[in-house]
């Protein structure tokens, strides 16, 4: 029988009576464990060896565990210091800690374990060691020493050490190999090593050698090293796709500052200056000089809308309006600031209807972090300016937009915004949980917004959350899976955004 060299070596090193582990075979054959494992699987498939698998656990001391194995547990050091300083009596805590030369987080570790293990009591700032305690009989200390010496220890103590992060456990599979009867027979009949080649080369063909060589089988199930190159984040990929879709729908992209004057973020939107969203609770104010470059006549018109309202029977907010407050700079809480800049003519000049603009950009809110809220997220902002727009146009636009992402069951709920009338929140159904989740906010800009900007036709507008769109597309339910330190790396690595 002819077999690849590595298999012949393993077959010769294996025994019919004693199990040999992969590690032992690797050593005996002077081959890498991976090579031996591969050879063993092939030999098993050929019926020449049998393999048993057992799960084994190995325990390793962490750096902290090693330190305590060498220098005693912090609670033991504390106990000994207390005895030294007070001769068995209660002593002020500061004094004991000083004498123990424990520092940093070890002080807390020492104190909590001191009490837990009955080394004594801590009362009104004093530490009273228990004369009956015996640090030499400390189970955890003994277990650490045993582990450091390569011995095994009791499961309960091990759990305790693990919860203190003094050890880590690793699960492994130990494979042991024995020769089968066929294996023994094959060996007796003689097994020859065949030179194996893993690819057919022109040289093999021209020399005719291909007739004699053994080709390694192509094993599609073999573990292969995973290649992880850099990759565009799925949020960015989806943002790009959103841009493509909106561009395809005839929209042009807006650009503008992340840190902007409150004037553009709120005042233009007829948001009263004492609106709760404009307090320091919700807003990331920046300590930078106020914005100078705002058209004076626009400021006058916006101020007038706030004070007196717009139109014959319009009404204002009956509260003071401060230009200083309007010029102050903050991180934008929505990208509707960009819509205001463009609609006012400040960015690309006066716009004649029809017009369509969008942006897919970051916004910042002083929220509390939870599974659906982040301090920053991406908003898909957009607006359409035209004569005679209706709510049907708004809904139709969303239906068309979301259908590009396979989402066809958008629901609308009447809503209130100071700047749109009517206003609608958008909801979509989460593919995994079945819950309706809010995915955006929209409406038709009010006269109080449009008139000061100098826009004389209708404008429908929206702000949609990019992260929520992703949730509907991929079914994850915690926004922190894609953002920040808790993000799910496998999800980010494996998810593909379809074009
Ligand atoms: N600015 C709104 C938000 O952040 C979205 C919106 C934009 C609503 C434009 C209506 C019109 O929720």
UniProtKB/TrEMBL annotation:
It holds the Pfam family tRNA-synt_2d. Its EC number is 6.1.1.20. L-phenylalanine binds at residues 336, 379-381, 419, 445. Signal peptide: none annotated. InterPro entries: aa-tRNA-synth_II, aa-tRNA-synth_II/BPL/LPL, Phe-tRNA-synth_IIc_asu, Phe_tRNA_ligase_alpha_bac/arc, Phenylalanyl-tRNA_Synthase, WH-like_DNA-bd_sf, WH_DNA-bd_sf. GO terms for molecular function: ATP binding; magnesium ion binding; phenylalanine-tRNA ligase activity; tRNA binding. It catalyses: tRNA(Phe) + L-phenylalanine + ATP = L-phenylalanyl-tRNA(Phe) + AMP + diphosphate + H(+). It is found in: Cytoplasm. Binds 2 magnesium ions per tetramer. GO terms for biological process: phenylalanyl-tRNA aminoacylation. The keyword ATP-binding applies. Keywords: Aminoacyl-tRNA synthetase, ATP-binding, Cytoplasm, Ligase, Magnesium, Metal-binding, Nucleotide-binding, Protein biosynthesis. PROSITE patterns: AA_TRNA_LIGASE_II. Residues 242-494 form the Aminoacyl-transfer RNA synthetases class-II family profile domain. Mg(2+) binds at residue 421. Its cofactor is Mg(2+). One of its GO terms (cellular component) is cytoplasm. Tetramer of two alpha and two beta subunits. Belongs to the class-II aminoacyl-tRNA synthetase family. Phe-tRNA synthetase alpha subunit type 2 subfamily. This is Phenylalanine--tRNA ligase alpha subunit. It comes from Haloferax prahovense (strain DSM 18310 / JCM 13924 / TL6).
